[in-house]
Amino acid sequence: MRSIIALLLLGTLSCSTDSPASTPPAEASLPDAAESRSEEAQIEKLTLSDEEWKLRLAPASYRILREAATERAYTGSLWEEHRAGLYTCAGCDLPLFSSETKFDSGTGWPSYWQPVEPKHVTEHEDRGFFTVRTEVRCARCSGHLGHVFDDGPLPTGLRYCLNSAALSFDPGKAPDAAPLD
Ligand SMILES: [Zn+2]
């Protein structure tokens, strides 16, 4: 009996250490550190099954968009694309990047310093064994596009390092870069 009382007391004590102030607000539980650069909620989602994606996408695009693979540097079709045009998501056609913000990063992957609309991409923490990177996904279909780094050119200082097979290129339409906030 005495041990039961002791357990009850312990339970009371451990619960009493959880003051309301130590409970984080709901917003703080979001895992994505960079939510401030994206407004995911405003984009209508496209959700398909894996089977539907396999039918819809070329194998290389499926591996990147749906399985977060990375194409080998200098092997994609768009890293050396210099024409004016619009880069859209290969999974759902959402406009993502413009030739106006594309630059030669020397990495062998198509690189941009800003998306056409901040809300068209979402950012997610990507933890590897030794690295923490920021993954970039399409805001409509959640397809993996690549990563964003802080070593890009002005005016943003960002480098969106993307996979060619995650993108479709539409030459001739090159929207101006959106004004920076
Ligand atoms: Zn998409």
Key traits:
alpha+beta, three-stranded antiparallel sheet, binds zinc ion, six-stranded antiparallel sheet, 181 residues, disordered N terminus, Metal Binding Protein, Guanine Nucleotide Exchange Factor, Chain A
How would you summarize this macromolecular structure in one to three sentences?
The chain is built from 3 helices and 9 strands, in the order αααβββββββββ.
Give an account of the 3D structure.
This protein is 17% helix and 23% strand. It is an alpha+beta fold and 181 residues long. A hairpin with a 5-residue loop joins β1 and β2. The radius of gyration is 22 Å and the shape is globular. The strands form two sheets. A six-stranded antiparallel β-sheet has the order 3-4-8-7-6-5. It has a domain of 124 residues: Metal Binding Protein, Guanine Nucleotide Exchange Factor, Chain A (Beta Complex). The longest helix is centred in the first third of the chain and has 15 residues. Bound molecules: zinc ion.
Topology:
Layout: H1 2-16, H2 50-56, H3 59-67, E1 85-89, E2 95-98, E3 102-103, E4 111-112, E5 121-127, E6 132-138, E7 144-149, E8 159-162, E9 167-171
Antiparallel strand pairs: 1-2, 1-9, 3-4, 4-8, 5-6, 6-7, 7-8
The protein binds zinc ion.
